[in-house]
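User: Can you help me understand a structure? I only have the sequence.
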Amino acid sequence: MGKQEDPKSLDDSNSTHKPDTSTVDVPVATNMAIPSIPSSLLPQPSWFTAKRLLAVFCVVNLINYVDRGTIASNGVNGNRRTCTKDGTCSSGSGIQGEFNLSNFQDGVISSAFMVGLLVASPIFASFAKRVNPFRLIGVGLTVWTIAIVGCGFSINFWFIATCRMLVGVGEASFISLAAPFIDDNAPVAQKTAWLGIFYMCIPTGVAFGYVYGGLVGNHLSWRWAFWIEALLMLPFAVLGLFMKPLQLKGFSHTGSKKPLTSPLTACPEEAVLNCSNGLSSTREDPKDGSKGAPSNLNELARFWKDLKMLHLEKTYVINVLGYIVYNFVIGAYSYWGPKAGYYIYHMKNADMMFGGITVISGIFGTLAGGFVLDRMTSTISNAFKLLSVATFLGAIFCFAAFCFKSLYVFIPLFAIGELLVFATQGPVNYVCLHSVNPGLRPLAMAMSTVSIHIFGDVPSSPLVGVVQDGINNWRVTALMLTSVLFIAAGIWFIGIFIHSVDRSNEDSENQISDADRARSQPLLKEKSNEPIEVPVESS
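Assistant: Let's start by predicting it. Here is the structure, written out as C-alpha cells:
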C-alpha cells in the first residue's frame, strides 16, 4: 500500500482485463481491493511469525520432555525400600520409596501417561477437521497443566498413575498437531532442519529433566518438581486458548473450497467470527446435499476411511515400524539409564552424568540429522538412507560402550552412539509428514505416536524391569536392550528400496502450494482499515 506501481505492469493489467491463471483463487493485480468485504472481516495476520511459532512450540515440547526426564530422575523417582541381612531397613526415597513400589510398578508409572496419549491422539486428530487445531492444542495444554498439579498431590500408586494418564491426554493434542504447523511454515529448503530443531527438544528436555529432577527432588521434594512444571506450562496453555487461532494447511472449518492465503493467516474470510472463537462452522458443502452437523456415524466412517488410506501407504508403514523398534530402546534408555549407570559404573551423580551426555549428544545429533538431510536434498529415499546408517552406527557405539568396565571409556563411546541415534529425529518425522497428503498429516502423526508408544516404550520400561528383576545384572540388561537397535536399522534399510512419492503437495481441501505461500502476504503486518491486498512478486 502506498508503493509506486510499475507502469508496465499497470498497462499490461489494463490492456488484458484478465486475471493471471497461474495461481488459484488469489487476486494478482497489485492494490486491487476485494469488493464488498470490510477489512475487519478479512483474514488478519496472526501475532505469530514462522520463527515465533517454532520458538513457542519448541519451549512447549521442551517442557513436555523435561517432565519425562523428571519422573525418571533419581531425585524424583528415587529408590525402593531395602533391608539388609541383619534386619536394618532403609526408608527409600522419591516416588518409589514413598509408595514402596516394585521395579515393575515403577515402570508402569513411567508408561501410564502413554495410555491417555494413545487414546486421545487419534481423537484430537479427528477433531482437527471440525475444530481449529490451534485451539485444540490450547485445550490439551490446559489438561496437561491440571494433571501435573495432581501428580504433585499424589497419595498412592493408583493416584499418581491416574494423573500420569491424564498428562498423556493433555500431551496428545500437541504431539499430533504441532509438527504439521511447523512443516507448513518452515522455509521450503529447510523443512527437515526446522523439524530437527523441534525434535531436538526431546533429548534436551529429557536431559534437563534428569538434572532438574535431581536438583529439585534433593533440595525441595519430588512433589515440587511437578508443581514448578505446571507453572512453566500455564502461560502456553492460556496462549493456546485465547490467542487468535492459526489455520492448518489442508483443513477447512467452514465448508469453503478456497485455499487459505497463508498458513499463518488466522482464518479464511468466511470463518473469521467462528475461527476467532476456535470453533468450526457446522454447515457442510452444499454439494453434499446434507444439512447440519454430520452424524457421529459419518464421523466414524470418515475416520476409518482415513485410517485405511494411511495404512495402505507402504512408505509410511515401514517408517513407523522402524520407529517402533527404535523407540522401544530409547524409551527404556530414558527411564532406566540413570539407574543402570548408577549400578554399573557406580556413578555418584548418575542424573547429572546421563543428563549431560544426553543433552549434548541430543542437541548436536538431532540438529545434524536435519541439516544433513537438507544438504543431501530432502527426499523420502534419502531420509531412509540416513535413518538406517545413523541407527546402525549408533547401535555399534552404544553396544561397545556397555562392554567396557571403565567409566572413562564408556562416556565417549556412549556419547557418540547417542549422537548418531538422535540424528534420526528430523528424518523420521519428515517421512511421516511427506508420505501422506496434507489432510492426513495430523492422523499420520497421531497414529505414529500411538504405534511407537503402544508397541515401543510402553512395554519396554516394564519389560526391562522384569528382565532386571530376573537376572539382576544391569550390564547384561543394557546390552540386550541396545542390540534391538540393529533391528530398527534393518527395517529402515528396507525403506530405501520401496517406491516412494512425496505427497505433501497433493490436492487436498484448502491446501496451498509452497509457490502460493511464497506469494502470500508477509507474516506480520500492521492492521489497517483499508482493504487487504495480496501482492504478487515477479518470478
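Now, to help you interpret it: The longest strand covers residues 82-83. The chain has a mean pLDDT of 74. Let me know which part you'd like to focus on.
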